[in-house]
Each structure stands twice: as C-alpha cells, then as structure tokens.
Amino acid sequence: DVQLQASGGGLVQTGGSLRLSCATSGFTFINYAIGWFRQAPGKEREGVSCVSVNDNIKYYSDSVKGRFTISSDTAKNTVYLEMNSLKPEDTAVYYCAADRVNYLCSDSSLYPMDYWGKWGKGTQVTVSS
After folding, report:
1. 70: number of CA atoms within 13 Å, CB side?
2. Which of 10, 20, 55, 111 makes an SS bond possible with 81, Cβ 3.0 to 4.6 Å?
3. How many helices (H) and strands (E) does the chain have?
4. Distance in Å from the first CA to the final CA of the chain
C-alpha cells in the first residue's frame, strides 16, 4: 500500500543545513503531488513546500523561500527537501504527504493539510540558537 517515510532530521545550529528525504512506495510516484509540512510545538501544522512530480511544479512558503529547495528523484521514488541557513523558527517535526490530486500543489499555492490523503511519520528538526 501507499507508504511515505520522512527521514534526515536532526539537531543543527543556526545557519546549518539538513537534507530531508521522503521515501515513497506503493503508488505511481510521477502521478502524485508531494508536500512537506511542519508542526512546531504549540503550533498548527503548516505547509512548507511541495512538488507536482510529473510537472516539476514547485512551491515554497514565504518563510522558507530562498533557503529551502525541493527536488524529486523518480528513479528512487523519493522527494528531498534541502534546508539551508536554518533558523530556530524552523524547529519542528517535518512530515511529507502525497496526493493524486496534483492541483493541491502549484507554484503559488499549497493546499492545507486536510486536503492531503497520504501521510508518513515525521522527522524532528531542531535548530539551536
């Protein structure tokens, strides 16, 4: 069945970098949109970035634009989130999600989490100040 697994989190200092991976299986990867969401303590889960794999359409929230880069590897059915210049406010559990409704992800919009059908367990990112 559809499975997603986020990994690559860890503890870094302000200004550091991490590369998160979302490994997927059980579905036709290129037909899906893949989204990255994060949830900080006491906060609602928010969209960070997404890619419509087939179209290579990408979205970044204003808070991460210019610092994070999303990419997909169709050979490995994996989406990556390269996070640079990390800030303490990036501290959160990061989740990846997938959905066949590819309009959930466009260059100007990432639909809220309730629209996304498939979720993996998150990976913790902690940025120390």
Report:
1. 25
2. 20
3. 0, 11
4. 40
